[in-house]
Amino acid sequence: MLVDAGGLFLLVEKAHWHYLPAAVLCFTLGSLVAFVLSTVWVFEEHSFRRWHDGFLAFTLIGLVGLVINTSLLWSCTEWGGLPYMASKGVAALGSFGINFILRKMALFTTRASSA
User: Fold this and answer.
1) pLDDT in tens, 26-44
2) Contact residues for 19 (Cβ-Cβ < 8 A; gap 6+)
């Protein structure tokens, strides 16, 4: 979340990027950090055998979150009149929960042993 929102703020305010491309880049970077933290710290068990299999599935699920995040960010900013960082808060709430639940169900469960 820090990489995502913090990076968005820095790219928009300091590098003068438009908020939408900055949001896509920062969401992607945040997802990379989330994958690493999820596999080494948050979840003790996972259902994938090789890290790149897990990363691929993690990324595909993340695309759902990216669509939700970007759609809410744009809608709240352009239609709702909220500042982009307030919109980011709404977007984060919408995408984080869905991504967490989908990733937990698909990737971070105990793998059934084949006897």
Assistant:
1) 999 998 898 888 777 766 6
2) 8, 12, 73, 77, 84
